[in-house]
Amino acid sequence: MPKLWNETIEAHRRDVRDAIMDASATLATELGLAAVTMSQIAEQSGIGRATLYKYFSDVEAILVAWHERQIARHLEHLVEIRDQAGDAAERLQAVLEAYAFITYEHHGTELAGFLHQREHVARAQKHLRNLIRELLTEAAARGGVRSDVAPGELASYCLHALAAANSLSSKSAVRRLVQVTLAGLRTRR
Q1: What per-residue confidence (pLDDT) applies to 39?
Q2: Burial class (CB in 10 A: 0-12, 13-18, 19+), 17
Q3: Residue boundaries of the structural domains of the chain
Q4: pTM for the whole structure
Q5: Which of 2, 28, 52, 135 could make a disulfide contact with 42, Cβ separation 3.0–4.6 Å?
Q6: CATH C-level class of 2-57
Q7: For residue 183, how many other CB atoms are within 10 A of its CB?
């Protein structure tokens, strides 16, 4: 019985944290980063201010936690794509395309500019670079990707090239960017 109670409390706390983070991100998007207050967040998430302060000390802490959760979800999504069936080249293409679409869909806001300067983003970039490097290593071993450039360098090249997706105007343009990036990775004949 106590285990069930603890699981219920943990689930409730997680739900409250999620509601706070989601309300904060919505408010920051609608009102602008500087305009968001703890009172507004409490009201939007349907909790009291005292409860809000039990979870987070300020608006910045909430938004950083929200962003960390978003990044973790994106990385989990990319790992799921990597783990799908198919050969190394197909999985590489699928991961690069998914990353490009994440970049395309989450760009250019005041909130993104504020949050992307944080340490958790650098850690996530390192994980992402390693994920892509491993796929490139596997694809190179099978002859589908050039081996004259170190996989780590190619991974950095891919990430920088696909960062351009944040300025593109359509999903078709994102797909073309991925194809151009992949063309630069292919083995020369």
Answers
A1: 95
A2: middle
A3: 2-57, 62-185
A4: 0.83
A5: 52
A6: mainly alpha
A7: 8
